[in-house]
């Protein structure tokens, strides 16, 4: 554990939103696709700020659509900055981190939150921030696995059945001590699907807190239907 972070230390949320959304198959980048009356990205930023523990948001936008994203987020004013994203998700995170640290060198806690998890409940966001503030250098929200999971080989043949009680599904936001996240990204040597994965490669501990089914990642058209059904009546 690190020393607890001062209660007034700056918390910045990085929002990678530069993906194309190939699996969703929409004609525009996924972060700009409307759901429940607003683009995914707008819901995601609104949710972060509504949690009451995030001081600044830095969004990584599709590089050819920075102006459109700035426009879509204009309601939030200077609390939200937009930078061009990169080729891979981790590139987008690194570029947003560069911006956050350049603009606010006093940042201590960094969240990394998928635009695609746009209905993440505030208690999940607060749970992650509280755990980092308490001294955990890396924190991820997780859910237990409901199905049996098999490991297969390249031909699709089952090679193992991992013990389900030790498996977790990982969500965002993932929270980090800023220096650890910087170090993890500076030393990235192979592709990775989440930021905690980079921290694990450094041999540093990653703590877990409770995730929530509503923090689902909108990935496919089915997920969009689920999100509309779950949240269209909600006050967003
Ligand atoms: N180069 C990239 C790729 C992804 N992301 C972001 O990372 C988050 C999680 O990625 P995912 O849900 O896989 O989005 P896409 O990469 O857009 O989806 P797909 O893989 O279907 O194209 C999304 O908010 C996405 O916008 C990003 O900022 N930069
Ligand atoms: C970061 C993440 O949401 C944790 O589950 C996930 O790994 C992102 O994966 P994607 O393929 O970039 O959506």
UniProtKB/TrEMBL annotation:
EC main class here is transferase
Stated role: Catalyzes the formation of 4-diphosphocytidyl-2-C-methyl-D-erythritol from CTP and 2-C-methyl-D-erythritol 4-phosphate (MEP).
> In which organism is this protein found?
Kutzneria kofuensis
Entries under Pfam families matching the protein:
IspD (PF01128)
The site (Positions MEP for the nucleophilic attack) lies at 164, 217
- Family the UniProt entry places it in: Belongs to the IspD/TarI cytidylyltransferase family. IspD subfamily.
Output the lineage of the source organism.
Bacteria, Bacillati, Actinomycetota, Actinomycetes, Pseudonocardiales
EC assignment: the record states 2.7.7.60
Identify the domain of life.
Bacteria
Q: Which biological pathway?
A: Isoprenoid biosynthesis; isopentenyl diphosphate biosynthesis via DXP pathway; isopentenyl diphosphate from 1-deoxy-D-xylulose 5-phosphate: step 2/6
- Catalysed reaction, written as an equation: 2-C-methyl-D-erythritol 4-phosphate + CTP + H(+) = 4-CDP-2-C-methyl-D-erythritol + diphosphate
Task: Please provide the record's keywords in A-Z order.
Answer: Isoprene biosynthesis, Nucleotidyltransferase, Transferase
Q: Where along the sequence does the record put site: Transition state stabilizer?
A: 23, 30
What molecular function terms (GO) are annotated for this protein? 2-C-methyl-D-erythritol 4-phosphate cytidylyltransferase activity
Some GO term, biological process aspect, for this entry: which one? isopentenyl diphosphate biosynthetic process, methylerythritol 4-phosphate pathway
Listed name of the protein: 2-C-methyl-D-erythritol 4-phosphate cytidylyltransferase
């Amino acid at each position: 554990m690190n020393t607890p972070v001062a209660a007034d230390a700056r918390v910045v949320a990085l929002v990678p939103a530069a993906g194309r959304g190939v699996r969703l198959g929409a004609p525009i980048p996924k972060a700009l696709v409307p759901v429940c009356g607003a683009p995914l990205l707008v819901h995601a930023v609104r949710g972060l700020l509504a949690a009451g523990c995030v001081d600044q948001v830095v969004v990584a936008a599709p590089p050819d659509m920075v102006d459109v994203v700035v426009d879509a987020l204009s309601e939030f004013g200077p609390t939200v900055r937009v930078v061009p994203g990169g080729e891979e998700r981790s590139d987008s995170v690194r570029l947003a981190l560069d911006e956050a640290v350049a603009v606010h060198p006093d940042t201590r806690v960094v969240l990394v939150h998928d635009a695609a998890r746009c209905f993440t409940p505030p208690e999940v966001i607060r749970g992650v921030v509280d755990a980092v503030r308490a001294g955990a250098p890396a924190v991820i929200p997780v859910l237990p696995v409901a199905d049996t999971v098999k490991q297969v080989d390249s031909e699709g043949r089952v090679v193992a059945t991992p013990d389900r009680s030790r498996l977790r599904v990982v969500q965002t936001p993932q929270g980090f001590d800023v220096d650890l996240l910087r170090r993890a990204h500076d030393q990235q040597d192979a592709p990775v699907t989440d930021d905690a994965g980079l921290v694990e490669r450094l041999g540093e501990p990653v703590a877990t807190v409770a995730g929530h089914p509503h923090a689902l990642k909108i990935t496919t058209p089915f997920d969009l239907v689920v999100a509309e059904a779950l949240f269209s009546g909600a006050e967003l």
